[in-house]
Amino acid sequence: DTEVTQTPKHLVMGMTNKKSLKCEQHMGHRAMYWYKQKAKKPPELMFVYSYEKLSINESVPSRFSPECPNSSLLNLHLHALQPEDSALYLCASSPTSGVHNEQFFGPGTRLTVL
Amino acid sequence: DAKTTQPPSMDCAEGRAANLPCNHSTISGNEYVYWYRQIHSQGPQYIIHGLKNNETNEMASLIITEDRKSSTLILPHATLRDTAVYYCIGTNNAGNMLTFGGGTRLMVKP
Q: Do residues A92 and A36 touch, judged by C-beta distance below 8 A?
């Protein structure tokens, strides 16, 4: 299984809602990533988890809260988002967190904040 | 951070070689160059990476200039399914993160 799955595919939420994005991989990878991608822009790294511990937080606002409950799962909890947070949220995994490792990306969750 | 510069778009005829250039003049001596592509409505997909020697795999070839200030990704026989945005990627100053450049939108035409 060389797939990273993400749910839901699409999410529409209001600014007062709380929602979560889910990412799963069963490749035995020990590094997992969240990226944000605005329309017609390249992906931007948000968070890196290595061996279930948060290793990189790219100064992401606290309204985004990542969680890695185990080595196969990565969640992104959303609360009090703004319309400018509307974007494609991509999850990726790699064997370890070194940049030389190929990152496997999921198809993303397209988030719209009203 | 290793900043990369790519042309915003390119066309290529189906069956011909697609040569995608990338300038990375600020790259340091031990930084690799990575290439990923993103087909519409999908996540990015790894293609290849290299340091100073030319590299080849089943998807593409990577030619890096001797001074390492630029590189070219070559898709030897482009197909319609190769239509995508191709990212030439460096790393941040700490060398622990990929930093995507603007990408080249490659359109393969019949």
A: no
Cβ-based contacts of A56 with chain B (< 8 Å): 96-97
The C-alpha angle A11, A14, A19, rounded to 5 degrees, equals 50
Strand partners, A87: A111
B44 and A103 in contact by Cβ < 8 A?
A: yes
What pLDDT is attached to residue A77?
97
The minimum CA-CA distance between A81 and chain B, rounded to whole Å, is 23
Residue B2 has pLDDT above 60, yes or no: no
Whole-number pLDDT of residue B1: 57
pLDDT at B74: 98
Residue of A107 and B30 predicted with greater confidence: A107
Given its phi and psi angles, is residue A105 left (phi above 0), alpha (psi -120 to 50 degrees) or beta? beta
CA distance A41 to A2: 26
Q: Which of A24-28, A48-52, B1-5, B66-70 has the lowest mean pLDDT?
A: B1-5
> In Å, how far is B61's CA from the nearest CA of chain A?
16
Contact A110, A85 (CB under 8 A): no
d(CA A34, CA A20): 13
